[in-house]
Amino acid sequence: MSYDKNCAEKPKRLCANCGREFCKGLWRENPIFIQVLGMCPALAVTTKALFGFSMGMATTFVLVCSSLVISSIRKLIPPQVRIATFTVIIATFVTCADYFLKANFYTISKELGPYVPLIVVNCIILGRQEVFTSKHGVFNSFIDALGMGVGFSAVLVLLGSIRELFGFGTIFYYQILGEGFEHWVVMALPAGAFITLGFLVGIFNWINNKRKK
Amino acid sequence: MRNTIKMISVLTIVGLVSGAALVFMYKYAKPLIIVNQKNEMKQAIFKIFPKAKKYRKETIKDETIFKVNDKDGKFLGYAFLAEGYGYQGTIKMMVGIKKDLETLVGIEILESQETPGLGQEITEEQFKSQFKGLKTSPPIIYVKNKKPTKPNEIEAITGATISSRSVVGILNEKIKTIKDELR
Amino acid sequence: MENNFYISQGPHQFTNTSVQKMMKDVIIALAPAIFASIYFFRIRAVILFAVSIVSCMAFEAIFQLFMKRKITILDGSAVVTGMLLAMIMPPSLPIWTCIVGSLVAIGLAKQLFGGLGANIFNPALLGRAFLMAAFPTYMTRWNMPFTLDAVTGATPLGLVKFTQNLNINYQELFIGRVSGSLGETSALALIIGGIYLLIKKTIDWCIPLAYIATVFVISSVTNMIAPDTYAGAVFHVLAGGLLIGAIFMATDPVTSPVTKTGRWVFGIGCGLITMIIRLWGGLPEGVMYSILLMNAVTPLLNRLTRPRRYGT
Fold first, then answer.
1. pTM of the full structure
2. Do A191 and C136 make contact, defined as CB atoms within 8 angstroms?
3. In which domain, by residue range, is A22 found?
4. I need a labelling partner for A209 at 20 to 30 A (CA). Which of A127, B90, B167, C246 fits?
């Protein structure tokens, strides 16, 4: 807990910390590229950029809310039942997100199908609670969850945009490639998701290796 | 012992709070979801029967059908739901049929999980509009790679024969049951 | 210290096989089939062969330049990949699609895995599999020979599978006057090439024999059980891509097992998967997927059938 104390004592340090906690989710510890978590939604719902975006937002919502709740009651939870407690809290927020989408964004929720309820078993969320939230204060946990959520969403949108561009010639339903463009059916299929993700991870590692040198 | 009590009490409290939160969420969402589902069906029916103004839900034997009327109350035809297996998952559609039960007015796909960009073309106007005015007897058949010539033929989507076949199969089966029920 | 010694494990036996020499033999063996396809599909075949070979060589050079490897486009392996890729394309394929196929074959299947000798899958087949998934409408549109884009006609396998048309003209099937991919129609030309390769010992006879025999046995049995639904054994051996697959693709030394037992298992596996897809699958032809699937288990076969070390 010395971490927290440091933050409270030195406001300047707090800002720097906060930036670091946020940015690590975007790049250094990116949930998809580095931790390779949450593959199921990343591959299944990214046929179009909008679906990737909605999925990312729903996951970020669940991640941030459960991080807030769990970090604030973390000292009350007996370690033996922590996983069960985490799961109950996460499931509650997932159900809320699912109902909300069904009530207000009916068509999107139909497209996402079972993958919104399946956020419960998304490793990113439970993983963050175990690794970070259960050991850190409310504020840091919030920043961490937000960073992870944004990093996850960004990759999902990128993946969805690439697949939508090749598979349908559009990005966010906005026509990019002309009418004469022949749709690559494979990009709308699971195989296209694997190929695109493979290329993205490869490029990501290539950039990282270059930077290390 | 104290630890056990703590465990039980924490889980109970978390469970109770979660349950309460979900009840509120459910109360808020349920009416909206029902409205959404009804709207979806309403839009589908009105799209099939452009002149329709209102419809009435009726249950004849085991089948739920919608009797569709225009603004003067004139009876236009029947609409009903048809459901079955496609290439990857369930295909659910709304079917409109004239009152003589021999001519299709049109179909609208409500739910489908076919291959995007291939089988999913069944939701495109180009495919759906083929069913407008189609004769229902003899049963509808599909042809491949050529223009339909008979009044009960449609052209299958190139590369997605199974999805096209499923739609035709689901339609034929449901129309047969509806005909049997209504006569 | 400079490394002046070349250290390798025994046995130290010298053969004068080289990549160039093998590829030269394969090109000679492919020649009859290429001439046959140019005869049957005329200008379309010429264009597709030229585009495919040139783009395969170009992509090989570009990727090797980019990855700072030695440029080896003159060893002939890119030419062979280009030829094989064109041979398994439908004649009506648009040219740019063929270039995309070459990119996938050379870039994705070969160079990204580490170049010649390190690829897991046969490059030409992976190129075709990608095109099949990306542009299924182009890849399933077939032309009759001599008609140049005018008349479409289902392949013999498609006819048997989807219309139960069992009137087979075996003579035309043998010579190649049927619709199908550019280089797969003429069984005669492919067999001539196969015999040449066997005489030159460029390919091992195990895989083709095991593959074709498995197909022959399964199709004879199914034909005996239900002669009205399933075509005979000779048809299944001559039709579709079986011969080109068995002779030129399954025998690829990089992607097939090195041990004798492994090769038998490989050939039988290919035959089994081909027949399962042909008889009960959703597609009329299964040669491509069968070889790709067996390529995937090749490392496993090599490990399971590794011979005992001498003296243990």
1. 0.83
2. no
3. 2-212
4. A127
